[in-house]
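In full, the data.
>
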Amino acid sequence: MSESQMPDYRTLLIRSGVTLLTEQDLADLTPGLRAIDGKIEALRKLAARDVGTFPDPLDEAVRSDG
């Protein structure tokens, strides 16, 4: 996920199948999800530097939807 865009974790969790999501659940999950996003971003930067770009699957999904 790009650094300039703040992810909407509530929507992402609901799209992934979460049925009951409280504000406390979201507050508890957000730090871990941000950490995962940070690790993915670091891997993309590493891959881009070493062997070319590592595409963002969310960008690919948006392009295929439109």
Notes: DSSP finds three helices and no strands in the chain. Helices lie at 9-15, 23-51, 57-65. The mean pLDDT is 80. The longest helix spans residues 23-51.
